[in-house]
Amino acid sequence: MTDRQELLSGMALTVFKLNGQFLDIAEGLARPVGLTAAHWQVLGAVLKDPLPVAGIARQMGITRQAVQRIADILADNGMVEYLPNPAHRRAKLVAPTERGRETVQRIEPAHAAFADRMCEALGDDLASEIHLRLRELSDTLETLETREDAR
């Protein structure tokens, strides 16, 4: 294996581990209010603006089918509702209900406390730098995927 292959594999394995760690943290924060990490992710994706299921899936980097399943569960539990989409007749918009917003707000104190602990451990400057570099890595991978799809 070349040095670059080792580097790619090392980055991927670290991100996979981070993903698991973040999901465990999210589960711990969401569980006390009756949500799963996945439910919280979908709700969080639509708090500012309603989105179609495909838009949520793109934002989260998961399949449309997985988001649809979660959105249907959230709708059955009164956390989200489906609204007409002026841009697409069949692709309804997912929007949080007042109950969904209130549930996410109940996570905020524990979320803020964990964010404070993490930033205190890393330092605010390093935490910001890590966030920037992770976004750059994600953007680069997206660009490379797009180029590959164009072939």
From TrEMBL:
An example Gene Ontology molecular-function term: DNA-binding transcription factor activity
UniProt protein name: MarR family transcriptional regulator
PANTHER family found in the cross-reference section: MARR FAMILY REGULATORY PROTEIN, TRANSCRIPTIONAL REGULATOR, MARR FAMILY
SMART domains for this protein: HTH_MARR
Superkingdom classification of source: Bacteria
Any matching Pfam family: MarR_2
Residue span(s) of domain HTH marR-type: 4-146
GO BP terms in the entry: response to stress
Native source organism of the sequence: Glycomyces buryatensis
